[in-house]
Amino acid sequence: MSKHLTTTAGNPIADNQNSQTAGARGPLLMQDYQLIEKLAHQNRERIPERTVHANGSGAYGVLEITEDISRYTKAKVLQKGEKTRMLLRFSTVAGERGAADAERDVRGFAMKYYTKEGNWDLVGNNTPVFFIRDPYKFPDFIHTQKRHPQTNVRSNTAAWDFWSLSPESIHQVTILMSDRGLPKSYRHINGYGSHTYSLINDKNERFWVKFHFKTRQGIQTLTNREAEAIVAKDRESNQRDLYESIKNGNFPQWDFQIQIMSEEDAKNAPFNPFDLTKVWPHKDYPVIPVGVLTLNENPKNYFNEIEQASFSPSNVVPGIGFSPDKMLQARILSYPDAHRYRVGTHYEMLPVNRPIVEVNTYNADGAMNFSDGNSSDAYYEPNSFGGPKEDSSFLEPPLAIDGDANRYDHREGNDDFSQTRALFELMNESQKEQLFNNIAEAMKGVPDEIVNRQIELFNKVSPDYAKGVKKALGK
């Protein structure tokens, strides 16, 4: 027997084809509550899109820990033999919802792990660095990636003007304009936590850590021309590839690795290990194998499970913590704030965001609160009525902080070029040629003053870098 159609209040609907009118040709009746509900709901079917990372795809999977790293962390999710269900959302950064997948951009790599100690979110990208190191500049940077307020089109001039005035961006710009700036699919990218985090062991010792996910499918990329041909026929090429690969049992996998730095090493490092524009050299801090990540389950409803998925680096578990990384510190605040605005006050009650453990807070009320509610006398803290209590056993070791409060110049005395130079020198001739040509294409229409300013930065990386770009520009 088929189910009968109802309103959202459960009232049966007898006719879902015709509105109520005053006569066959007459006007609509205001009493047609079923019509009003249908139209009013349609007006509200879309929540605000993400300010960045608006266009994305996702899937569920499992993280299996195959190696023993208990000397570094007590986090249960990272203990050998542990298997944890998770959600991974891929995305582009700049494009709006509906933007083409095969565009040159950084790719988001956001993970939510449903652990036995609460949710752990690791919100990263397919690059180990970022364009800026101070969050004060993040809104300005994102403005350059969005539409011009007058023309309503993307502006190459805005992007290169900002980058040429922000030398700390050159490492990420070089990656973006290289072959890796245009991946073939989400399955063919690496993922990075990017920020520096901390691991804490059962002795309450802290270690600084970088998280890496290396694709087992291999890095595969597209040229601009190949991407243009794909976009002309399929704007959802990466979404389609991910969904169909999992549907067909071709489960993508990544090797999970970490880099470790002691607190003492961090004090003596020749660079700031908490600077998001820097990598930790692998020869000094080799990667340590930890486990394998496998995606094996497609979502059943894209809106419910991917569009409403809300990730935040503020979601950590005992044994995993933060660092003095300024960008990370800001994201701890800004991500949950964005979700409360975009999805709603109680976004973490939604099934895709809800942890698998019991949640005990004194948060009260708010729109769309569908918890069981607190009807006991223990609705505040501290109380004398057996309500949830703090547990000092979860305290982290103290982090030593010193210095005067000031607006320190994050560019003063900072070497923004040597790591980019090392990356450039790792490229073969074909990769360098792609880099030069990609930059030249991305500089179309940009005023000479800005182009020349950027070429001066390339020259500080390597004279060959500047010469190659100038040649590609026909200068």
Topology, element by element:
Blueprint: H1 33-43, E1 56-65, E2 83-92, E3 107-115, E4 118-125, H2 138-145, H3 156-164, H4 170-177, E5 191-192, E6 197-200, E7 206-215, H5 224-233, H6 237-247, E8 253-262, H7 263-268, E9 288-297, H8 302-307, E10 320-321, H9 326-342, H10 418-426, H11 429-442, H12 448-461, H13 463-473
Antiparallel strand pairs: 1-2, 1-9, 2-3, 3-4, 5-7, 6-7, 6-10, 7-8, 8-9
Short overview:
It is built from 13 helices and 10 strands. The chain is an alpha+beta fold. It folds into 3 domains: 1-45, Cytochrome C Oxidase, Chain J (Irregular), CATH 4.10.91; 56-132 and 173-355, Catalase HpII,  Chain A, domain 1, CATH 2.40.180.10; 418-473, no CATH class.
